[in-house]
Design goal:
CATH topology of the largest domain: Alpha-Beta Plaits
Oligomer: single chain
Mean pLDDT: 85
CATH class of the largest domain: Alpha Beta
Low-confidence stretches: 96-103
Largest sheet: 8 strands, mixed
Number of domains: 3
CATH architecture of the largest domain: 2-Layer Sandwich
Bound molecules: iron/sulfur cluster
Shape: extended
Strand content: 15-25%
Radius of gyration: 27 Å
CATH superfamily of the largest domain: Pseudouridine synthase I, catalytic domain, N-terminal subdomain
Structural class: alpha+beta
Length: 307
């Protein structure tokens, strides 16, 4: 926030902030968002405002048919009208998941391997967890919830991917009162949005690993750029920390191994982050050349030997 820039802008438009902050707006005054057409007419909103001052209720058009229309302006009654959806039919009975929470049993921790590709690459980590939370809810999966004022289903996306990058074996850890992991796998895949697919579900008995290894695949040209830079000791990018200090993120400190035949690079990933390939390509001005990158897999500590 730069106060001076705001004041300069006000001068530019020959107005003072007090004109707005102290003014009691009248219905006919122009509002900054007046140009946004949400369908509801301004006259309708004004009439609602006037009615609210007299404590007069407006009937809810949704509880009846269009004869109850109060003329808000949203419907054209051709392509757009108010209509109740008929009750949906579940593709299966979710009760099969729902048989443990009342028995004081401990929840189970599961690792879910899933695919995130095509349009699903646009979901951030938080959105991905929400997608799974919705799907579990729709299927009545008996999840364990966090405590506190805003309990949330216990779902963690391990070292989430950058938005825009495909992942073929991403990992979620969930805590749920479900004994049969195959039910999770078979049933939930039916309703996950396109781009997401659950590939495996297994019990997770270990503690969360402090460090994991992620395998990234690159298209051949991008891989050769990266390997060339690595050989010349310039496979790094600069990052500015929150405190404004410049930090060099060097691939040498992260790389575990590479697989030239399959254009794969294995890098360490931990709480402090990992090597961001897209940042590197951006800094060498190569990103526009269509770097194709995907995370092929991410391995827990016990799987490192096989990585
Ligand atoms: S029926 Fe449509 S146009 Fe009429 S009040 Fe309801 S939402 Fe508005």
């Amino acid at each position: 926030f730069d106060f001076n820039k705001w004041m300069n802008a006000f001068k530019h438009y020959s107005s003072a902030p007090e004109d707005y902050s102290t003014k009691i707006l009248q219905p006919e005054d122009e509002l900054p968002w007046d140009f946004i057409d949400i369908g509801v007419k301004k006259e309708f909103l004004v009439s609602e405002f006037e009615k609210s001052k007299k404590e007069v209720m407006t009937k809810d058009c949704r509880v009846s048919n269009t004869s109850m229309c109060v003329g808000c302006g949203v419907c054209d009654f051709d392509l757009l009208r108010n209509e109740f959806a008929s009750p949906g039919k579940k593709s299966f009975n979710g009760n099969e998941f729902n048989n443990m929470s009342d028995t004081n049993q401990e929840y189970y921790s599961y690792v879910i391997d899933f695919e995130k590709k095509d349009s699903a690459v646009l979901f951030s980590a938080i959105e991905t967890c929400r997608v799974f939370a919705h799907v579990f809810k729709m299927c009545d999966v008996d999840m364990s919830y966090s405590r506190g004022y805003n309990p949330q289903p216990r779902i963690s996306y391990i070292y989430p991917l950058s938005v825009g990058v495909e992942g073929y074996n991403e990992k979620l850890i969930i805590k749920a009162y479900v004994k049969d992991k195959n039910l999770l796998l078979n049933q939930l895949n039916k309703i996950l949005p396109s781009g997401f697919k659950m590939k495996d579900v297994r019990l997770f008995e270990n503690k969360m690993a402090d460090e994991m290894i992620a395998a990234y695949s690159l298209n051949f040209e991008a891989y050769m750029q990266l390997i060339g830079a690595l050989g010349e000791e310039r496979a790094f990018y600069k990052k500015t920390t929150k405190r404004g200090r410049e930090k060099i993120i060097d691939l040498k400190e992260y790389i575990v191994k590479k697989d030239d035949e399959n254009c794969l690079v294995y890098v360490k990933i931990n709480g402090r982050g990992s090597f961001n390939f897209l940042e590197f390509f951006r800094q060498i001005n190569y990103i526009d050349s269509k770097v194709l990158i995907a995370r092929e897999n991410i391995f827990f500590t016990e799987e490192l030997q096989n990585a």
